[in-house]
Design a protein that fits this description.
With about 120 residues, this protein is of the alpha+beta class. Helix content is about 50%, strand content about 20%.
Length: about 120
């Protein structure tokens, strides 16, 4: 395999890995995206909500069936100390919006000749 092709593949993998993680700096943008997709912010301001926030994995979606409908929860203990709650429509819209962002980042990585930081160690 040509070295330039391997470099492009490594850059793409690195970019995808970076896109899948959420840092504190990215959290406000993610909060906006969740809200714009239809998720409702529920502050952890009662004992029950605090316990729920602690029991959910941070920055991951958890699906639950509730009274015959699907509910998605997204715990954010860092940026808002809250749980975002939404239905199937909100979840699908969120993923549509995220898919567009990842695709744009992938295209930039493929078109860029500039090495990424730490790329030489891959």
């Amino acid at each position: 395999m040509p070295e330039s092709f391997q470099t492009v593949i490594a850059a793409g993998i690195t970019l995808l890995a970076a896109a899948c993680t959420t840092s504190q700096a990215e959290a406000p943008d993610n909060e906006d995206l969740l809200a714009a997709s239809g998720f409702v912010e529920r502050k952890a301001d009662t004992q029950e909500r605090i316990a729920a926030l602690k029991s959910l994995p941070p920055h991951r979606f958890v699906m639950r069936n509730s009274n015959g409908s699907v509910k998605y929860m997204y715990a954010d203990p860092i940026a808002c100390d809250c749980i975002y709650v939404g239905g199937q429509r909100a979840y699908d819209l969120y993923h549509q919006k995220m898919a567009g962002r990842v695709s744009d980042d992938q295209i930039r990585a493929i078109l860029s000749d500039t090495p990424l930081p730490g790329e030489s160690g891959l």
